[in-house]
Amino acid sequence: MRETKVVCRELDCGNPVAESRGPLIEDGRRGVRLGGCYGNESSIRQCDIIEEPGVCNGEYYHHVTCSESVRLVDGAGLCSGRVEVKSNQSWASVCEADFDRQDAEVVCGELGCGAPAALQGGLYGEGEGQTWDKEFQCKGKESFLLVCDTSDRENNTCLPGNAVGLTCSEPDDVRLVGGSSRCAGGVEWYDQGEWRTVGADGDQEAVGAVVCRQLGCGSTVSVPPGDTTRGVEVICSGSESSLRECWRSSYLLPGLTVICSVQPDISLTDSMGGVSRGHQGSEMFRGYNFTITCSTQPQYPGGCFLLTFTGSNIQQIQPAVNHSAAFLFPAADDSHQGNYSCVYETDVFSHSFSSESELLSLTITASPLPAFIIRHVVVLLILLTSITTSYLYYKPTRRQKRVNRVSSMDLDVNAMEMVSLSSRAEAGPGEERAAQGTE
Questions:
Q1: Secondary structure class of 92 (helix, strand, coil)
Q2: Are strands 174-178 and 184-191 parallel, antiparallel or unpaired?
Q3: Strand ranges (DSSP E) for 113-156?
Q4: What are the disulfide bonds (predicted)?
Q5: Over 60: is that where the pLDDT of 27 sits?
Q6: pLDDT digits (tens, 9 = 90+) for 176-232
Q7: What does the pLDDT average to over 317-343?
Q8: How far apart are the C-alpha atoms of 206 and 220, rounded to whole Å?
Q9: Residues 81, 74: contact at Cβ < 8 Å?
Q10: How many C-alpha atoms does 359 have within 13 Å on its Cβ side?
Q11: Is the dihedral of CA 361, 367, 371, 374 positive or negative?
């Protein structure tokens, strides 16, 4: 879409929104064949022209749709930049206070991008022209920004650094099909209402890098031979943020298959508090046990992790369980000092690939106390905690039992007194006086 970006810029019509192609309605229409644009040209005439104007019998024309009234400038791609609105045939930046997330949703949708990802004043610099003097009040469902309601701005000034910048997510118009995850498979591009196969002949790695970047799947690991299905040729430099910024031709080539992978993570933990961060990386006390954990995003099922160590030729390997593996070292010593890395290996499309993590630098240092003393102290603390907990639990129970026993004795005494009183009542007054005289 680099050519369409140049066309919209030359016509002062904002950002390109869509591009389509179709057969010429009639023969004899004159045109030129472009070799491609870089996207920063001010005129289509500055692009590479393969053939001079002539007859385009049997070829295709290109149809371009520009946003016309809103654009994003000075960003990394078509879906990011400083928000500018066309006013009286000139472009005006928008103040951050006059623009909220619902307004951003309308702009992202109007430009054919995904949902808003970042909204901040001064994110993409300041505009050189005028500032939009209205406050937008979009509901988020409008098709175009300029059909939203507006109101007069409460403050007539927009301070420097408040020109609103917007980053939209890339459009959901690319997918990988036929693989074991969404990050591996044949490349398809949603174009003109249907999913189309993408083909590539030249730098396939560059196309794969753009696809993986757009899908949020990390970097390209491999581009194995594609299938027999033929698709439209796409040519990328590799730096584009989305596939629609690449150049495409009318040629049909074998479909492109891409395998992406996110770099695995590596981390260091221990159960005794012996890990610290130093100037050279992680530091571990001598004699402490530690664990190195390898993990990766849940892209592919199965696979295994290989833990490599620069200080030794010995390598450890474990299967990936829940996309991770833990390597336990019982006691740190000087032989464990060095650089570690995790390598994730798996098979996709009967093709083996691997991806390596960053290096983890580990330094072994002397412990402030001998390790065996610290271990004994930890054990004693655990025992003391258990004893204290048991004491606090059983003490109320014993007290309650004593209270229950006293209560029971009181009940027995009361019962005996009740029986005695009942017996005297049944004996009558005479027997009671006789009993008192006997006493």
A1: strand
A2: antiparallel
A3: 116-121, 134-137, 149-152
A4: 37-47, 138-148, 236-246
A5: no
A6: 988 777 888 899 988 777 888 998 877 888 999 999 888 888 777 677 766 667 888
A7: 91
A8: 9
A9: yes
A10: 11
A11: negative
Q: Which tokens is 97 given?
A: 């206070």
Residues 6+ apart with CB under 8 A from 384: none
Reduced to 3 states, what is the DSSP secondary structure of residue 86? strand
HSE-CB for 370 with a 13 A CA cutoff: 3
Q: What is the CA radius of gyration of the chain?
A: 38
Of 176, 183, 206, 339, the closest CA to residue 263 belongs to: 183
The DSSP secondary-structure symbol of 310 reads T
Judged against a pLDDT cut of 70, whether residue 371 lies above it is answered with no
Sign (positive or negative) of CA dihedral 17, 21, 24, 29: positive
| Position 143, amino acid | S
What residues contact 294, with CB distance under 8 A and at least 6 apart? 264, 265, 266, 305, 307, 324, 325, 326, 327, 342, 344, 357
Q: What are phi and psi of 152, to 5 degrees?
A: -65, 140
Helix, strand, or coil here: 335? helix
Token pair for 411: 């009940």
Residue 10 main-chain phi, psi, to 5 deg:
-65, -35
Q: Note whether 320 and 342 are within 8 A (CB).
A: no
| Distance between CA atoms of residues 184 and 353, nearest Å | 12
Q: Which two tokens stand for residue 392?
A: 């606090």
Beta-carbon count within 10 A of 253 CB: 19
Length of the chain: 439
Q: Dihedral, CA atoms, 190, 193, 197, 199, nearest 10 degrees?
A: -70
pTM for the model: 0.55
C-alpha–C-alpha distance, residues 273 and 384, integer Å: 19
How many angstroms separate the CA atoms of 104 and 82, rounded? 12
What is the DSSP annotation of 87-100?
ETTEEEE-BGGG--
